Amino acid sequence: MHMTTAQRFEQVKEIRRRELERQPVARDIKDLPVSYELISDEWLTQALCTKAPGARVVSHTLDKADEGTSNRRRIFLKYNEAGDRAGLPASVFCKATQGLESRLVLGLNRSTEGETIFYNQIRPVLDIEAPIGLFANVDTETLNSILIMKDMGGQVQFCDHKTPISLERARSQVELLAKLHGSFYGKPERQKLLQPYLSLKEWCDLTEEAFIWSDARMRGFQAGEAVIPPRLFRRADEVESATRRVLDGHTQLPTTLIHSDVHLKNWYVAANGRMGLSDWQICVKGCGVRDLAYAVSTSLTIENRRAWEMDLIKHYVECVAAEDATPLSFDQTVLLYRQQLLGGLAMWTSTLTPAPGSPDMQPAETSLEFIKRMTHAIDDLDALGSF
């Protein structure tokens, strides 16, 4: 029997209540930890030492908590002699959905499932700069999940809304996205890997059902008035109707794997100067131009975006073609770029004024800066006039 969203909410709340009451220690790898404090050395041994015969974790300590959409933590590890000889990592970085809010926000729309699939099945076949997963699992009943990655702390520069993005860095972003998208466009064998993924429309529909996402978007647009171009702000109703059209329209466009949340805070600068992309929790099937428009419009200052965006779009089209994938011409890509800006904006108006039951995912300063950049792009390019 299909549960309503309200029934599923209550089911997950009850599961979490029982976990907090029981406080089960995770000892077997089949058990997903319900808190970082309840992770045992035995569990970590099974998660991290399977490729090193005789190795085991003998102790571990937790770094400070880092709470947001997901529950994040760094774990410091000590091994026996076999583990030391094998060069197992002294620390790992973890993302989880142990808290109730994280489970509801990332579980009800199957985002945690998508990220688990990415690290277990997709990441190993992609030649891109992105984190390396060591263990990933999700329980689709409890919506609990955990992802353990190689710790990049101190090795890369994580970006925020103030990070300067030069033309060289922007081209590196575009090249990564083109390689990601070109890895699946028109490639039947690779497309089979995408079968478990939701389409962007399905993800949006689930998010709407769970959180009335459209209301959060409209509240956020109103709350962002101070940074939105006045003539665009006066067209708020048109913005929302065009946004729905854009999100629904992906089913009619060439489909690949898209990251879908490529704002600047999900990028990092690797040691070699190349740009890398993290936080793959909203991976879905859709048109790659969504990622292109979203990344360029949030990463660049308004002035640099105006100066560089057409050259960056041209570079993207050329790089996709270099992957033996040519789904869209330059002119088609420019048209879609204008339209897909609206889909990126939807992620941040709803973040500025989150739906009831959602965590406060980002500082208002960050949300407002990205809303400012994207709405100026929408206004500059007359996105509303592109349909």
Would you write up a description of this structure?
Helix 12 packs across helix 14 (330-352) and helix 12 packs across helix 15 (364-380). The chain has helices at 5-22, 41-48, 81-85, 100-107, 111-122, 167-182, 188-192, 200-211, 213-223, 230-233, 236-248, 289-299, 302-322, 330-352, 364-380, and strands at residues 57-62, 66-67, 71-79, 91-96, 133-138, 145-150, 157-158, 256-258, 267-269, 275-277, 284-286. The longest helix has 23 residues, at 330-352. The chain has 15 helices and eleven strands. The chain is of the alpha+beta class. The strands form three sheets. Strands 1, 2, 3, 4, 5 and 6 form a six-stranded antiparallel β-sheet that branches. A three-stranded antiparallel β-sheet has the order 7-9-10. The relative contact order is 0.12.
Low-confidence stretches: none
- Termini, distance in Å? 40 Å
Number of helices: 15
Secondary-structure element string: HHEEEHEHHEEEHHHHHHEEEEHHHH
Please summarize the sheet with the most strands.
6 strands, antiparallel
Helix content: 40-55%
What value does the Rg take, in angstroms?
A: 21 Å
Mean model confidence by pLDDT = 94
The gross shape turns out to be globular
Assign the structural class, choosing from mainly alpha, mainly beta, alpha/beta, alpha+beta, or little secondary structure. Answer: alpha+beta
Strand content: 5-15%
The overall strand count is 11
